[in-house]
Each structure stands twice: as C-alpha cells, then as structure tokens.
Specification:
Layout: H1 6-9, H2 20-54, E1 61-69, H3 78-100, H4 105-118, E2 138-144, E3 149-156, H5 162-172, E4 177-179, H6 180-189, H7 203-218, E5 220-222, E6 229-231, E7 244-249, E8 255-261, E9 282-284, E10 289-295, H8 297-302, H9 305-314, H10 320-335, E11 339-345, E12 350-351, E13 358-365, E14 370-375
Parallel strand pairs: 3-4
Antiparallel strand pairs: 1-7, 1-13, 2-3, 2-8, 5-6, 7-8, 9-10, 10-11, 11-12, 13-14
Helix pairs in contact: 3-4, 4-5, 9-10
Bound molecules: aspartic acid (ASP).
Residues 67, 241-243, 261, 263-264, 273-275, 281, 294-295, 297 line the site of aspartic acid (ASP).
Length: 376
C-alpha cells in the first residue's frame, strides 16, 4: 500500500473498494488540487497586495487644539508637558481611527473633543475654569460642513460631555442652541451622562480663580476702538484661558468642526464666549473650511471669526492660510484681542495660526503620522 497524502488520508468520503491503481490516480489528482489551490491563493494574495499598494489611501485630516495662551517652555515642567502631549496624542488617535476606517468627520471631531473634555488638564468638561461665583459653566458647539447643520449648548453645569449634547441638539432637536437648565433637561432626556457639579472641580482651576480675582480687581484696560473698559488680561493667561477643539476632513470629502470650553476664568453674569457661537468660535462648510477657535472670546464674536474666514475663501477667493493669518495675526490683535485657531479646508490644507505665546495643537493625516506641538 502506497503512503497517501494527508489530504487523501483525511478524505473520509473515499469509497473503500478503490483499487491500488485508482489510488495512484486519486492521490495525484488530490496532490495536484492541493498545490493548485496553494498557487491560486499565492497569486490572489500577490494581486491584492499589488493592487492595494497601487491605490493611494483616500485623504483624511484631523486637527485638534487644547487652547491658546501664555504657554512658555520656561514655565513648563517635563511631567506637565508629557501630560499635555499624551492627551493630545490620545485625542488624535481616537479621532483618526474613525477617519481611517472611513467614518465621518463629525464622529471624529466629537470623539477627539470628548477625550480632551475628560482630561482635567484642559479647560473643557472636567478641568473647566471657574466663574466669579465659583461655578463651572460649560459651552460647546459642533457643525456639519455637509449640511450646515449645527448644535450648541451654553452655561451648563452638570453635563459630562457638552460636545455630545451639542451634537444631540443638532441631530435630535429642531433648535441650534440651548442654554442652562433647559439644555440640561434636554441632555437628561437624551440619555447623556449627567454629573454632580463637583465632578468638574480641580484645585489648579480653583487657584486660578483666586489669582484672576486679584488681577481683575487691580487693573482695567481700554478697548482700542470702542474706548470701553475691559477686564485686564493678566500676564499669565494660561490659567485664565483654555478651550479644546477639533476639525476634520473625512474620506468622503466632508468637513466638521467642534469646540468645547469652560470659558474664561472669573467670568460674570452668565457670560458666554465665542465657543458655542456658530460662525464665531466654530464653523464648517464643505465648500470652504472647518474651523475651531480659542482665545479671548469677546473679540472672536465681534470679528465673527470663523465665518469671516470661510467668506474670505468663498467670496474673496482667498486661500486658507492668508485668510486665517489676516484674521488671527492682524485683525484680532489690532482690536486688542488674542488667541488662535485650527482649520482644515476642503482640499485638506491645514492652518493653525495663533498670536499668543503658544497653543496646544496637533494633527494627523492619512498614513497615521501624528504631530503634536505646543510652543511657537
Ligand atoms: N474662547 C473661549 C471663551 O472666550 C476661551 C478660550 O478659548 O480660551 O470662552
């Protein structure tokens, strides 16, 4: 009896009356079939690899920020710097995983912002700055560049992830913006995570409020155009500012923008900044650009910052970089304000201008290489 190939040995369907001659033929055919299958497999693998190597991966871009301010290397400890860098990398990782799998820009910006909201280092969600009354009042907004749909909430004190409630306002309500208790009631009905206000407390921000109260009591400055008195911006604005944001272009060519903040330390009387205001701190339009801003909100509102850049591109036929630079590096400081923004245009070009000392920022594109920056 000849030794049979393993393929034949395991073939229980073979008739038991087979003669030795037939056995040889069957063994040959089985061997031929086995090696033919192997060859087919190798060839199809080869063609798949060659084809996917030839097809360039579709374009996607994610840009994030964790706030602009007086961020000096000399004032940073290596541990603190690592904390910021790790958090920015984590936010990029989370959002880009969605984009890489062909997910939407909207899902990506929401996911990235949630990571930064949950991190106490940033002025959004947990770690938000305190109002003059010692509360944490949160603002957020999100915009879909494909449909120009938008959602925003402002002045909320119990919503763990304001950006997700802003998205719920956009998708599950007929409104664009909700404030205070109404927004909180809506969030509860939508099954959003509700926290006791004490969840948002951090010692650093509490100390920041005490410093800001002292600073704000000492001096006022005068607005260069309106000659109105304004709250002084202290030397080290890092403890006063913050805000997180994300903008993305997905593989389907859709843009989205998201911004979330605790606002400005020592804010009074239900003050609301630019972050939840569509067109000021957040804007996205598939025809032009997606933008998320950070900085002195009153000036971003007055300059209608994000929408103005979009209009400069749409109607003024300007490119992203000169348009963003004109607004952030010239018009914003000329009025007496400061800050920065992140932007990605419909072709995937990025801009991250700021006229402060630094801005926590980062980006990732198809291919997956993450870039994180803090200083000038
Ligand atoms: N723009 C925010 C606000 O004015 C603050 C910030 O970005 O730091 O509320």
């Amino acid at each position: 009896m000849k030794r049979l190939s393993s393929a034949v040995e395991t073939d229980l369907s073979k008739p038991s009356s087979t003669t030795e001659g037939n056995y040889d033929l069957i063994t040959f055919l089985e061997r031929y079939r086995t090696s033919f299958n192997g060859l087919t497999l190798i060839f199809s693998l080869f063609f798949t690899i060659t084809l996917s190597a030839q097809q360039p991966q579709k374009k996607y871009v994610l840009v994030i920020h964790g706030g602009a301010g007086t961020i000096l290397k000399s004032q940073m400890t290596p541990e603190k710097e690592k904390g910021y860098t790790d958090a920015l990398n984590e936010a990029l990782e989370k959002g880009s995983a969605i984009l890489n799998q062909g997910g939407s820009a909207l899902d990506a910006v929401e996911a990235s912002v949630r990571i930064l909201e949950d991190n106490p280092l940033f002025n959004a969600g947990k770690g938000a700055v305190f109002t003059n009354e010692g509360k944490n009042e949160l603002d957020a907004s999100i915009m879909n560049g494909k449909t120009l749909a938008a959602g925003a909430i402002a002045g909320v004190t119990t919503i763990k992830n304001p950006i997700s409630t802003a998205r719920a306002v956009m998708e599950k309500s007929p409104h664009v913006m909700m404030t205070g208790r109404g927004a909180e009631q809506f969030a509860k009905e939508q099954g959003q995570e509700i926290m006791d206000p004490s969840y948002f407390y951090t010692e650093d921000r509490w100390k920041g409020l005490q410093r800001a109260k002292q600073d704000d009591a000492e001096t006022i400055i005068v607005d260069s155009i309106t000659k109105q008195s304004l709250l002084k911006q202290p030397e080290n604005k890092d403890y006063k500012y913050g805000t997180v944001g994300a903008v993305a272009l997905d593989q389907h060519g859709n843009l989205a923008a998201a911004t979330s903040t605790g606002g400005m330390t020592n804010k009074k009387f239900g003050r609301i900044g630019d972050s939840p205001i569509i067109g000021a701190g957040t804007y996205a339009n598939n025809k032009t650009v997606a933008i998320s801003g950070t900085g002195w909100g009153e000036y971003f509102i007055r300059l209608v910052m994000a929408k103005t850049i979009s209009d400069m591109m749409e109607f003024g036929k300007m490119k992203l970089k000169p348009a963003a630079d004109e607004m952030i590096m010239k018009r914003l400081p000329a009025l007496g304000g400061d800050g920065g923004l992140i932007a990605v245009d419909k072709d995937g070009n990025i801009a991250m201008p700021f006229c402060t000392e630094g801005m926590y920022r980062g980006y990732v594109k198809e291919g997956g290489k993450k870039v994180v920056l803090i200083y000038k």
